[in-house]
Amino acid sequence: MNKMWLKEDKHRRWLVGGLVFIVVILAFGLRLRLIDTTGIWGDQSFTLNTAMRWVNGGEIPLAANKSSVGVMNPPMIEYLYAIALRVWPDVLSVAWLTLAAGMAAVGMAAWVAYRLFGWQAGLWTLLLFALNPWSVFYSQLIWNQTMIPVFATLTLVSLLLYFAVWPRGVYLVLAFVGAACMTQVHPGSVMQLGTMGLIGLLFWRRLRVWPLVAGVAAFVALYVPFLLYENGVGWTDVTATLSLAGQPSAFSRAAVLVSLDLLHGKGLLPTAVLLTTPLDSAMTLLFSLSLLYALGWGAQQFSRRRQDEQAAKNSTAVIILLLWLAMPVLFYVRSAVYLQVYYVMGQWPAPFILMGMTVAAAQRWLRQPRRQAWGRWVNLVLVGALLAVLAGQLVMNLQIQTNRLSENQVQIRHIRQTIQQVNELAAARPECSAVLISEGHQIEISRLALLREFTRVPGLLLADGELALPLPQPCALYLDARPGSRASRWLAETAVPLPAADLTTQNETWRFYELPSELMQVTIDGLVNGRQPDQWTNGAALAQWQRGEWQSGAPLPLTLLWQVADQPPHRAYHIGAYLLTAANEVVAQADGPGFDSIQWRPGDYFLTWFEIPVPPDLPPGQYRLALAQYTWPGLERVDLAQGDNTLFIEEIEHAGS
After folding, report:
1. pLDDT tens by residue, 385-402
2. Class of the 529-654 domain?
3. How far apart are CA 558 and CA 560, in angstroms?
């Protein structure tokens, strides 16, 4: 009898092991498929560029990019990216890191479900988490928020192991390490620190001093770089965060709905209503039943905790899981920001563990001897229904990935191709500067900022094609990645195209141009046309200007050619173009950064474009066009070399409409 039981147990272990292996391979393949088709925009470009700068020998970053609420993000994401980039200095290495993090989250969640509630709970948790559309999507996309799942899972798993399984000190330390990383990659998960504190208060008898002290010390140590940054900027982000927290907000059920959306696919596949609606409804039903079961079963286990050690562990685990779910919802019940799914992603992997636990409990209930006559068939129906839903999610994931092939966005594959092309063209023109024309005039917001560090081109320049065009000396290689912009039209008319190097990115064609030294000099001489420049004290000089046709009620185009005469201070400057009355009262104005002043180099030229909105009811009279420069965001006027801070460039006589 004993030999028979051992044989059956061994057979079951092999069967379960085989199922786990198949699911893991499926999850990995699903996350690997078309991984280079995920998008790259300003956020990714900045964080990748910052991490690569450190890998290339720059200073260690003390902060990352600016968050959507206007404060700086802590630097943990930069350190994670730098690890991957040091191993393989390619954008795709960071996507692989994201994939590995997503797989680790799934694995940890399934393992802790197995330790707490048995192998069936672990297997269902693995399936539900592995095929969840958001889990797959965020295991491919390079973005700060995509690292939340792995660290939220590490934190929750460590808490469950410490308080509900075995209070080993290393588990508590790992919980604090995971929390420090989770709250750095997206500070919106900070409410789970409150959850940790509440769990510690509820189960304080299990707390030991040394792991608690070590965990807190590890948490603080991981925040030291950001604390140094905040101290250097006068704690401005802390002040701004406190100010945001004090803003008025209304009660809203958005947090509940967004929490449910984490189990759905409608946000990722909005057009396939016939597919997503039944699948999303099924997941909502399963999650709702799981919550009801967890509350009922958890209360039953809690009532038996004094007589049954296993019941005490079960009730502890359920309480921790429910608190982990509830705190983000309660935190965002009153919210001053528009919630996205990643704001509550710190709930993971609690929903999948609860659902896995519930399905496993239902199967055990159906297998009891007194239900043997009909329980087996109901169990088959249950398993069949769940597998059908999971198969539907698999199809949904494949469709989401396939749709990306036709989406109008810059993707990892386009960036890698562009890096290779720029390297090859620049290597053939080592004496020329490389200029990228894209969206975003600064490194912090440019769509192609990462090319500064991922290419082998020193001093690569970035410009927004609607605002400015650099004319670096003695010659330039241009990549026009903003078709139809002012810079694009100017290059098409003036520069030499390199059609063999053109790149196709979805619905756009990115064109390469060059301005060899002879053509560059002829072009600048023609633009300057013998005019003596007017110089400001920050090193910039107006070399020439040209306005378009004057028409009341229509924008007045103004093209300005600037020369960087001297080394400028390392500050940000904006340019103002003004239409003034004879008494110097402002009638209309157009302001902007033009070409990012942080990139100004002595001897270079650059063009800027403005459109001054002339009022339609402008009365007849004498008007003046004027220019000024000022610091940004300080708004301090820059003086002209000859005194004053306003340059008057033209008198205009307006006869009326």
Report:
1. 999 999 999 999 999 999
2. mainly beta
3. 7
Spatial distance between the Cα atoms of 382 and 450, rounded to a whole number of angstroms: 49
- The token duo for 298 is 């958890």
Angstrom distance (rounded) from CA 611 to CA 558: 6
Prediction pTM value: 0.90
Domain ranges of the chain: 2-34+44-404, 412-517, 529-654
* Tokens representing residue 470 in the block: 């650099």
- Decide if 75 contacts 54 (C-beta within 8 A): no
Question: Which tokens hold the place of 545?
Answer: 């200007």
185 neighbors 223 (Cβ within 8 angstroms): no
**CB of 468 within 8 A of CB of 456?**
no
What pLDDT is recorded for position 326?
95
**How many angstroms separate the CA atoms of 227 and 490, rounded?**
46
Distances (CA, A) of 75 to 126, 186, 434, 503, 579: 31, 10, 29, 33, 44
Which two structure tokens, joined as six digits, stand for 101? Answer: 């993090």
Burial class (CB in 10 A: 0-12, 13-18, 19+), 372: exposed
Token pair, residue 570, equals 């390392």
* Rounded Cα–Cα distance for residues 452 and 434 (Å): 10
Q: Which residues contact 374 (CB under 8 A, 6 or more apart)?
A: none
Q: What's the token pair of residue 257? A: 């709905």
**Spatial distance between the Cα atoms of 229 and 233, rounded to a whole number of angstroms:** 6
- Sequence-distant (6+) residues with CB within 8 A of 309 are none
